[in-house]
Design goal:
Blueprint lengths: L1 E2 L8 E5 L7 E8 L3 E7 L3 E7 L3 E2 L1 E5 L2 H22 L1
Antiparallel strand pairs: 1-6, 2-3, 2-7, 3-4, 4-5
């Protein structure tokens, strides 16, 4: 079992928050003494505060810069595509 305290700012992580949950992508944006401001990427972007001591079942991977760049290109191009479909 891990905790959010292990995560570094501005990095993208693939994590599994609980044993029975799906893998998700998060980015740490800000760290305070006791908490972290996290962006959770899914069908919608969720911004939230998380306690550093809160558990993470598994930190699967820290995305390297190239993987994070490729992911951003895919994520934002698909987001723009789905918005066009709504019109």
């Amino acid at each position: 079992m891990y905790s959010y305290a292990l995560l570094e700012p501005e990095c993208y992580y693939l994590i599994q928050e609980n044993e029975n949950k799906k893998v998700s992508l998060i980015q740490v944006k800000l760290i305070t003494d006791l908490c972290m401001y996290i962006i959770h990427y899914g069908k919608a972007i969720t911004l939230r505060w998380q306690k550093k001591e809160d558990p993470i079942f598994d930190i699967i991977e820290l995305l390297d810069d190239e993987s994070a760049k490729k992911w951003r290109e895919i994520y934002y191009s698909e987001d723009a595509y789905s918005e066009e479909d709504d019109d």
